[in-house]
Amino acid sequence: MRINKIFCAALAAAALSLSSCEDFTEVQPKGKNLLSTTDQLEMLLNYEYYGGNNDMRLMAGDMIYAFSPLANEISKPTKSRNVIIWTYDEANIEKMAELTASDADYTYYYGIIGKISNPILQQVEKATGSDDAKKMLQSEALTLRAWSYYILINKFAKAYSPASAANDPGIIIMTEETDIQTPQSKSTVQQVYDQIIADCDKAIETGGLSASAVNKMRMNEACPHAVKALALLSMQRWDEAETEARKALAVNAVVNDYNNNYKGTLTGYMIGGTYDVIDRGKKGTDEDYFLNPNLDFYNSFSPEAFDYLEEGHAYRRISNANMMYDYLMDFSTTLIGEPGWQPTFDLNSYWNDGGLRSPQMYLVVAECEFHKGNIDAAMEALDKIRVNRISPDVYQPLRGNVTAAGDAKEHIKQVTCNELLFSVDIFIAKKRWNQVSGWEASYSRTISGQTYTIKPDSKMWIFPFPQSVLNNNPNITKHNYEE
Q1: Which pTM value belongs to this model?
Q2: How many other C-beta atoms can be found within 10 angstroms of the C-beta atom of residue 274?
Q3: I need a surface site. Which of 144, 285, 308, 384 has the fewest CB within 10 A?
Q4: Alpha-carbon distance 399 to 419, whole Å?
Q5: Average pLDDT over the chain, rounded to whole?
Q6: Residues 87-113 as b or e (16 or more Cβ within 10 Å = b)
Q7: How is residue 45 annotated by DSSP?
Q8: What would the pLDDT profile of 57-87 be if each residue is shown by its tens digit?
Q9: Is 63 helix (H, G, I), strand (E, B) or coil?
Q10: Cα separation of the two ends of the chain
């Protein structure tokens, strides 16, 4: 996919045409917004979404993206940013901040807010066009903004804690009414989540979204409910989170049946063997509400991550480099110098990296039902996912077989980590659990015989702001792990 040329022309004419997204809160606006009709404003939504960088997935501990032996990289006297992340080297977090000149996620998500959502919301009431078109534009722009803030706050700030969110430093909130010529200050974590909920509520109230969008990279009716459910889950408002998740599921409750559908084959390069793999295609699947696509290619998943997959799980069939070489060699040894890792090799599928999907809503229901003491209902929600992921030869339902709270909690964690393996949401989930009493955990990975661990209270869960922001905005002088 490529950005539509008409979109580029429209964007160039917009008032918020920016040289980079890190400093869109500081630049001087150029020209005036010339988009005056709903059709022209809709062109802003014709955007080429893509999964962000690998930061959060790396920090979650399940995968590493590299093309040289990890031991060699780790042993170098000058530590790279990646090495600091791989080894959870909190002592060098300031070095990591110095090495973060820019940040692809900051650029990406604030770019959506500053170049798509806010210009639409700024102009939609004045634009020429039907009321239905205006409602659609407003609902979609609000949902996009809420989703973007949800990802940003979870990368750059502390996970939501009901006890401290009102004081915990967060990120900049930019709405259509914000003066972009004035450097803005950070809002608190509470204020950012309040903004997310408010945007979702207004998008829902406006009612401009249909059950099926024109394609999977446009928001549909389930999306504002899904974003709100995820935000409320982080806020530990279990009843409300489940209500919103069920509203999203009422629009679309499909979970991809990887046992019978979405099948493909990979042909080996050495002896021409053929292997069954998952083929999601590149247009989104039945379970995708909103696709934020990412190719999984040479992302090496740790043995621990793949061992944590349930027996018979479809994700064990992900296209990988060992298949490519007909299992005649362990390609992870060649690629990163670590035997037993799983280097992916999937050029046919777009995995939904941080987007919105129906399985996420079942995970919300499961966790909320657990916190309300309803173990059977929680396990039933997990089974809605598992029955489409686990081979029928070994599948056994959890409902009725899992009755102890401790066991139920561990199953929720396992199914969540399995399901979110190809997404930044696995980082968000692990980080969020550390704010829930009894759910805290340390996560470890072993590289060349050395085990590295990230603890629940580690500063490494909060990423530094890019230097481009600190250098251009005098109101942001500290990273959120420093405050």
Answers
A1: 0.93
A2: 11
A3: 308
A4: 18
A5: 93
A6: bbbeeebebbbeebeebebbbbbbbbb
A7: T
A8: 999 999 999 999 999 999 999 999 999 999 9
A9: strand
A10: 41
